[in-house]
């Protein structure tokens, strides 16, 4: 966990010290999304390869589906709310007179 927080702090520092152009921001967003899909795919492959998980799938059933769905929905909601809060507290000026999402 410490490595994760250290990596996040390093990323924040790099972003602060070397701000990206609007094109750079878009590229980083696309790279982040691609990395997220790779992570989710690899996690799915690990679960699919785990015979114990596959054997107990019928007993987990609806409860596991609801738990997974609620986790995803809660994560998406919290990221959305946190992003809105950050956009209000820390508007980004891309140098074109527009701030935040208006710049796109």
UniProtKB/TrEMBL annotation:
**InterPro entries from the xrefs?**
LysO
Could you tell me one molecular function GO term of this UniProt entry? L-lysine efflux transmembrane transporter activity
Q: Which UniProt keywords apply?
A: Membrane, Transmembrane, Transmembrane helix
Q: Which domain of life is it from?
A: Bacteria
- Where are the bilayer-spanning segments? 27-49, 61-82
Protein name in the entry: Lysine exporter LysO
